[in-house]
Specification:
single chain; two-stranded antiparallel sheet; 10% strand; alpha+beta; Rossmann fold; 160 residues; two-stranded parallel ribbon; elongated
């Protein structure tokens, strides 16, 4: 996993010097966390190692994702140097990214129950729900599993 498909460029990308790659990662019904972020970081390292061959600038790699992909993009952007989240796929290159867009992905697993409660939803996930492989069991305010999965629990760099 953590494989990459260079999908080419689109009109906007052609004019701006951008390339677009689509990556795959194991879903929560295939593997438990942190397999997903290991796959994503492995894909970034794969791109970085082949950047010169493909005419890419290895210093300017960003990530964009929606929903679960947004969560992984945010976690990718906030977990550079966190050894337990690096994995071993495609070693020998950095998995850090320069930019992230998290389009409606969860960012704070410590607040999931409170947010669900406000919306009148059932709190917690059943143990047989594949999402619990990422979210873990019910996360409280000091939950270590919830904290390690939450991009908001890491130091971020301000944009301006």
């Amino acid at each position: 996993m953590g494989d990459v498909v260079l999908v080419g460029t689109h009109d906007l990308a052609d004019h701006r010097g951008l390339a677009i790659a689509s990556i795959n990662y194991r879903l929560s019904d295939e593997a438990i966390f942190p397999a997903q972020i290991h796959d994503v970081k492995g894909a970034v390292r794969f791109l970085r190692r082949r950047a010169a061959e493909w005419g890419l600038d290895s210093t300017r790699i960003g990530a964009w994702g929606t929903s679960a992909g947004g969560h992984l993009a945010a976690l990718l952007g906030t977990s550079g140097g966190v050894a337990s989240l690096e994995g071993s796929l495609n070693p020998g290159a950095s998995s850090r990214v320069s930019a992230v867009v998290d389009w409606f992905g969860p960012t704070d697993f410590l607040q999931l129950d409170a947010q669900l409660e406000i919306q009148g939803c059932t709190i917690g996930l059943p143990s047989n729900d594949p999402r619990s492989n990422v979210c873990g069991s019910r996360s409280g305010p000091t939950s270590s599993p919830g904290r390690i999965r939450s991009p908001t629990s890491r130091r971020t760099i301000p944009l301006f």
